[in-house]
Design goal:
The protein is mainly α. It has seven helices and four strands, in the order ββββααααααα. The longest helix is centred in the last third of the chain and has 19 residues. The radius of gyration is 20 Å and the shape is elongated.
């Protein structure tokens, strides 16, 4: 494994193999990489230094990804205010948010139960997916109404 420092955001991340070009999982910046014979030993030293902190940073559900959207915030919005579609407004899908809001208001909450169940499922999916999967499936999706 090899540790890289992103020149754009300053965060550290690792790759399994030597590659000529790396893409930062945090900000998306691509960088050319060169290696020396000492890189393997440097990685082991850095890994001991950072220990579990490196994996904790990657698994932080409330850190924002390349889009600036946090899956933790979206998940909380979906769990607690999902029947009015607030999580859709947060991930820049206003058409879906308006649909949820109108469905809840016009039916005096009858469809609000359905939208809340769907939102709870989505909230759980937000929390259990990786940041890359969250952004691919919901934030950067070409669909105006991503469900699952």
């Amino acid at each position: 494994m090899y540790i890289h420092n992103c020149p754009e955001c300053g965060k550290q991340y690792s790759t399994q193999e030597k590659v000529n070009r790396v893409k930062c999982p945090y900000c998306g910046a691509e960088t050319n990489v060169s290696y020396s014979e000492q890189d393997g030993q440097q990685f082991q030293d850095q890994w001991r230094q950072f220990g579990d902190q490196a994996s904790a940073v990657v698994d932080d559900v409330f850190s924002s990804g390349r889009s600036g959207k946090s899956r933790g915030v979206a998940g909380l919005l979906a769990l607690f205010l999902g029947s009015v579609g607030l999580h859709y407004f947060y991930i820049n899908k206003p058409n879906a948010g308006i649909l949820f809001l109108v469905a809840t208001l016009l039916t005096c909450g009858v469809l609000g139960v359905v939208t809340q169940i769907v939102s709870i499922i989505q909230g759980v999916l937000f929390f259990t997916s990786s940041q890359e999967e969250f952004e691919r499936k919901w934030v950067n999706s070409p669909s105006n109404f991503p469900l699952f």
